[in-house]
Amino acid sequence: MFKVAVCDSISEKGIELLRAEKEIEVELKANVDKKELPLQLVDVDAIITRSATTIDKEFLSHCKNLKVIGRAGVGVDNIDLDEASKKGIVVLNMPTGNTIAATEHTMTYMLNCLRFMPNANYELKYKHIWDRKKWMGIELSGKTLGIIGMGRIGSRVAVRAMSFGADVIVYDPYIKKEKATSIGARITDSLDELLKESDIITIHTPKTDETYNMIGEKEIEKMKEGVILINCARGGLYNEKALYDGLKKGKIRALGIDVFENEPQPNHPLQEFDNVFVTPHLGANTYESQIKVAEGIARSVIDALKGRGYENAVNIAMPEEEISDIGKQFLGLAERMGSFLSQYVKSFINKVTVYSHGEIENYNNSLALFTSVGVLKNMVDEHINYVNAPYIAKERGIEIDTKIYKQKTEFKNYMAIKAEYDDNKSIEIGGTVFEPNKARIVYMDGFDMEIELTGNIIVFRNTDKPGVIGMVGAILGKHNINIADFRLGRKEKMQEALSFIKTDEEVTDDILNELLNINGAIAASKVKL
Fold first, then answer.
1. What are φ and ψ of residue 523, in 5° steps?
2. Please, what is the Cα angle at 455 between 452 and 457, to 5 degrees?
3. CA-based, 20 to 30 A from 50: which of 269, 355, 446, 496?
4. Cβ distance 423 to 468 under 8 Å?
5. What DSSP string describes 197-222?
């Protein structure tokens, strides 16, 4: 008999599924004081929670028999994943149940921003003012909708907006272009192009270092006068001060915002504007989505307790008992190399080939798995782990292949990763482990070098001539950016050089552009590991 405690309110449909299992005893704990709650969970095998319960180290110290935590929703920020993993507790989430709800919520915002229906409703219903001229609206038909992020929700928003007669332009460097064009949308490789052409912009990306505050003052300046902005995805994707300034200047016609950088947010400065529509993070709040989430997490918890599978597990690690110490270090290197590639390429990678040489040939499949985790975690709005990575890669149309490295190499153990992207483009990087805890990248596209893949890295490519590197140092110094490490590789035949420059803090896009303007610069990118 398994004991399952439901710590927050979920749909009764999910509880019914649990109770239908003869081997499961259900305890409803949603109304228990949160300080008292962990004391009542000493002998439970699984708990189901939402965002109201914080499951930290102290909480888990009381749960002596806990095997599974089910999060009825997407986010797991309220769960200490490291501590749960140390205790062997599997954490599951339910990322897909609210897709339609969030899609329709976005469409609701879009129509309200076009027609100002909440304002007209309030004035007529509570002030008893009949003023048709004041609430002259605009139509979605014929407008250009810019969608940043073409995942599960963004793609569904596109289809619905086009049914209204809107033209849709998409920016998402991590999808196959056919995903947009097959439904009649236009895809662009330039965010600036989307910003300049769109009458309405809605954002549907994960919140990462790359996307945090990705729409700020400079991006809003590039937009049309009277643009409509919507965010039902993650707080912090739009810079909230920049939104305030854009509204104050009249640049933004209307703003629809369901999520804030810090929540709860009952009294945000944005709320002072009549043309701002806000809701308290209601994207997933429909009866249907709550039923789907509750039923889904109930099934996942049942399966996990009975050992039938761990769908949507967010913290299951690969079994490493049979992998040597050197093999384990290469697994970590593979994940970092994969993350480096996806950040450097910043485009849809359609194929990844993992090559191995030496003892690590025995772990080629594991190396490919860890590489795919590294590649995907910068690309998708889901928690990537060693269980779901192969499925998500397949869903995204990314082919993962493994091969033995047959070229001559001076290293006893060596791995290389080749990424193919944008039709005929490709890039290859190689790495090795010299000694315990000394994993290094040693090759990139014909350049030999040695650097640890950690921290903030500028990848700078230039013609190999005097003065270029000095200018790089001068620009970074001007912006008070300290260089922590500098490694240089040269191609004499091509008369090119490639530099890996580690800095104490992340550089801005403006600084990258300054580096690109150096006479002799070919390319400049930033990577954070």
1. -155, 150
2. 80
3. 269
4. no
5. H-SEEEE-----TTTTT-B-HHHHHT
- The pLDDT tens digits of the residues spanning 416-475 come to 999 999 878 999 999 999 877 788 999 999 899 899 988 999 999 999 999 999 999 999
Say how many C-beta atoms besides its own lie within 10 A of residue 120's C-beta: 17
Half-sphere exposure of 246 (CA within 13 A, CB side): 28
In the chain, % helix, strand, coil (3-state, to 5) comes to 35, 25, 40
- How big is the chain, counted in residues? 529
- pLDDT tens digit sequence for 492-502: 766 899 999 99
Cβ-defined contacts of 237-242 (< 8 Å, 24+): 237/203, 237/205, 237/207, 237/211, 237/212, 237/213, 238/203, 238/213, 239/213, 239/215, 240/268, 240/269, 240/270, 241/217, 242/215, 242/216, 242/217
**Residue 337 pLDDT grade (very low, low, confident, very high; cuts 50, 70, 90):** very high
Half-sphere exposure of 479 (CA within 13 A, CB side): 19
Choose among 381, 323, 373, 331: nearest CA to 352: 373
Cβ-based neighbours of 130, under 8 Å, separated by 6 or more:
124
Tell me what the mean pLDDT of segment 85-98 comes to. Answer: 86
Which residues are catalytic, by number? 234, 263, 281
- C-alpha closest to that of 397 among 385, 381, 380: 380
Give all domains of the chain, ordered by start, each with its CATH number.
2-97+287-305 (3.40.50.720), 99-278 (3.40.50.720), 324-450 (3.30.1330.90), 454-529 (3.30.70.260)
Residues in contact with 246: Cβ distance below 8 Å, sequence separation at least 6, in sequence order: 217, 220, 252
Q: b/e string for 333-368 if b means 16 or more Cβ within 10 A?
A: bbbbbbbbbbbbbbebbeebbbbbbbebbebbebbb
Q: Is the pTM of this model over 0.85?
A: no
- Rounded CA-CA distance 307/310 in Å is 8
